[in-house]
Amino acid sequence: MKISMRQIKRKIGEQSINELAKSTGFQLREAKKIDGCSFFLGFIQMNQNDDTALNDWAKHIYQINGHDVSGQGVQKKLQFRHEPFAQQLLDYVLKKAALQNRGPETALFKAFSKVLVEDSTCLSLPRNLSSFFPGPHSRTHDECATARIQLRLDLLSDSYDGVYVSSYRENDQSFAHQIVNELKGGELVIRDQGYFVLSAFREIIERNAFILSRLRYGTNVYDPESEQEIDLLKQLKAAKKAGKKVFDKKVLLGSEEKLPVRLVAIEAPKETLRRRRYKASKERNKKANHSSDYMQLLGWTIFITNVGEELWSYKDLIKAYEYRWRIEIIFKCWKSKFNLDKFFEGRQSISPPRATITLYLMLAWLTLSIGSMFGYYVQRVYEEKQKFLSLWKFCDFAKERFWELFQAKDIDSFIDELARYYSHEKRRGRPSYLENLYEIILS
Questions:
Q1: If both were cysteines, with which of 121, 135, 253, 440 could 146 make a disulfide (CB 3.0 to 4.6 Å apart)?
Q2: How confident is the model at residue 440 (pLDDT cuts 50, 70, 90)?
């Protein structure tokens, strides 16, 4: 199929991207050879063709805008002063995607305007970037470079709500407060223990938003009336002795924060307990010396939330928390389908601004391909065909047909094909992630 770059530029927002290039200093004057939009589209085409050299990038820019561009010319656009353009381009793509996506209604999350999950994945970089992206500390003091990519996903629209790049050492806890300024009332944030920061939870609640998290071991728990510390393990043992498998109580968390939350502890199945204790014993041999109390508390799955029991039962809490794993599937797609983990493979050295700029461009492409289009087609395919798209299969479609999607006059023309070849197969007793989320019961 012949590619019409005019149509693609219009759909992707050429004017907005080039205005962004000017406002960030990527273009100091009217572009003669490399404008912001052609720079980005050339990068995408280069990656689709598995090209890596700057001359290849220049060639694809030439094919897009017809201007004679050299690899050296591209290199001049990969300097520190050009980083803001790449970063704001990613923000632009994220906002553009967020405006168009809204999935089917779901009973579990009907009370929330957004359901946000956060997690991070890491990416190895050439060793010379270790001062810019310091990796894990090593006993041998060998320096390595590792980037940490933070992703925030809205489960309701299946679209990316935020993507951020930092070094490996800026861990999830240090990122815990970042969401607060962008959060709105009525939104739900689901987090694992890596983001467990009580002051961040307080800020989220003060925004009239909601939290759901696992309790981190060692957090002090207090009675809300007497403010006396609760021996949680003792109370759980008493509940179990009384034949109760669920402990649901309003408490205060933290010796200083005294954060009011609902604490819900559910007795774990024996197999889950066995698996947790086995994992903990391995950790003990390596880096931890877990106490007897810790090993006993592994027999309970303990949540904290400010969602009331009139809205969610303990079963709803379990079900809601399970959807956090959706983000792991996305990371797997990034690495397996779009080869993100091989993005810098084989490079002994690369300039810091080139690494940062190309990483932002790669994330912008992933946002367009998956975070934007998948969310749209999930809704449209279900509305038209009552089928659910497979994210894993859709990644192949989006990568192979990217240009067709962005130059199509009617993007709904792909719905029949997507429903037939890229949807989940119906299996009794084994509903897909989306079928579970939207509670579709197969007949």
A1: 135
A2: very low
Instruction: Please check whether residue 135 is in contact with residue 142, taking contact to mean a CB–CB distance below 8 angstroms.
Output: no
Which residues have a Cβ under 8 Å from the Cβ of 122 and sit 6 or more positions away? 146, 147, 148, 149, 168
Q: Where are the domains of the chain?
A: 1-77
Rounded CA-CA distance 103/39 in Å is: 32
What global pTM score does this model have?
A: 0.86
Residue of 38, 100, 44 whose CA lies nearest to 69: 38
43 to each of 35, 38, 49, 131, 352, how far by Cα in Å? Answer: 12, 8, 10, 26, 17
Q: Look at residue 281 and give its three-state secondary structure.
A: helix
Amino acid at residue number 429: G
Task: Please give the pLDDT value at position 18.
Answer: 92
Task: Please compute Rg for the chain using Cα positions.
Answer: 24
**pLDDT over 90 at 287, yes or no:** no
pLDDT tens digits, 300-320: 999 999 999 999 999 999 999
Q: Return the residue matching tokens 């300097």.
A: 79
Alpha-carbon torsion, ordered 325, 88, 128, 339, to 10 deg: 40
- Going by C-beta distance under 8 Å and a sequence separation of 6 or more, which residues neighbour residue 361? 40, 43, 44, 86, 89
